[in-house]
Description:
The protein is of the alpha/beta class. Helices cover 39% and strands 18% of the residues. Helix 1 packs parallel to helix 3 (80-91), helix 2 (55-76) runs antiparallel to helix 3 (80-91) and helix 2 (55-76) runs antiparallel to helix 5. Residues 1-7 have low confidence and may be disordered.
Amino acid sequence: xxQPAAHGELRAVEWAAGRLRLIDQTVLPHxxxxxxxxxxxxxxxxxxxxxxxxxxxxxxxxAYGVALALIxxxxxxxxxEQVLAAVHRVREARPTAVNLAVCVDRVLPFVDEGxxxxxxxxxxxxxxxxxxxxxxxxFGADWLIARTGLDxxxxxxxHCNTGALATAGWGTALGVIRELHSRGLVxxxxxxxxxxLLQGSRLTAWELDYEGIEHYVQADAAAAGTILRGEVxxxxxxxxxxxxxxxxxxxxxxxGVALACADAGIPFLVAAxxxxxxxxxxSGDDIHIELRDGAEVVEWGGVRTAPPATxxxxxxxxxxxxxxxxxxxxxxxxxxxxxxELPGTHLR
Length: 348
């Protein structure tokens, strides 16, 4: 298993020599490879193919996509409208994760100031995300220690991948786990495998192994049983969009974890930066759920695993109602949903 040379060097998104450099997350954990993106269409394809994934990482990539559009436009002789059209296509590459649109929109006003201004703002977005992740890791760890009231290392469950690979660095939900681990307060992590593309077993397990954190990978369907048998003290997950009422879209399978936590009476903590909170979206009913190619469900490695006529239903996300979420941790602190502290009233 190939690993980065040093902990500080793991960056899913980097700008170097006039192009965007991405860790190719489709080939992990077998190989650590980078691909270089020089066009907006190449970036759009990379986002759609999950070469780069995770809401904050996609947001950072989208910000640099504006720079790619400027360079590409200069090279191809595009006018301003063509440049903006290319940026819009990147912005819409994955509709559920709000970070992509937020970060692109933040950089867009700098287009008329030129490439250097766009790159400076995109770099600022990256720096802010890493700082935010570190802060939410501390807030989340403190909250979990207080909430569980346990005087021993915690047994935690997480779903999908929310570490350095999914962000500009450090991680959101996995950042909370990393902070707890740094304090010697993690006994074990259950990482759901995350069907159909196995981000949990391919990516989260790779990061946990890299950090030396004891862990199991389990089938998504095993999560509820593990929780209800009393083998988990808390679940910590990320988010791709948080609505004003606290409803939260995350990788499909998250809802089942939340339901099991509610039944078991253990904390279900969502960790996400404020860029993921969309107070303009009233509830989960207003969140567009991306449907991916059904072949991802009925094939594996290009080999058909279901009858030829069977179609695959492949929602990439599900929505967890706010009533099932114990709390949301952002870089600003923790909102306790059980006390009525919802994003629509606290994060405007």
